[in-house]
Specification:
Helix content: 10-25%
Largest sheet: 4 strands, parallel
Radius of gyration: 14 Å
Strand order of the largest sheet: 3-2-1-4
Strand content: 15-25%
Distance between the termini: 38 Å
Length: about 140
């Protein structure tokens, strides 16, 4: 097994394909450092499994990785918890499958994480045009 990634993105999904694939393409292109990003997609009981539709996205150009896990539909919170349990990185971020991220999303997430004491858990919503450190 390779070294643990720096950050894991957890993406719960149900039966989607179009926007999910675009989101994953974006994330895999924006990796911050070689091997530094892991993405865990949690398919929450889609009628047709999502994994075959993501063929070809297993690794990004800089060694980031994508894994798909499947579970029964228990809603987005259960899917996020499942993704967190599957994560190998010490820092997590959660993204819905229909989101569009700004170009600095990962970098800003890591900046905020560096300012949070070890062991703290908190959520932060940053709107377009804001800096996460202004809050």
């Amino acid at each position: 097994m390779s070294a643990a990634p720096r950050v894991t993105g957890v993406v719960p999904t149900y039966g989607t394909g179009g926007r999910l694939r675009a989101l994953l393409d974006e994330l895999l292109r924006r990796d911050l450092a070689p091997g530094g990003l892991e993405i865990v997609v949690v398919d929450v009981g889609s009628p047709e499994p999502v994994e075959p539709r993501l063929a070809g996205l297993v690794t990004g150009p800089r060694g980031s990785s994508l894994r798909v896990t499947r579970t029964v539909n228990g809603g987005p919170a259960r899917a996020r918890n499942r993704g967190a349990r599957e994560a190998r990185a010490p820092i997590l971020f959660f993204v819905d499958d229909d989101m569009e991220l700004g170009p600095d999303h990962l970098r800003e997430h890591l900046v905020v994480a560096a300012h949070v004491q070890r062991g703290w858990r908190r959520g932060l919503t940053v709107y377009a045009g804001e800096s996460p450190l202004e809050r």
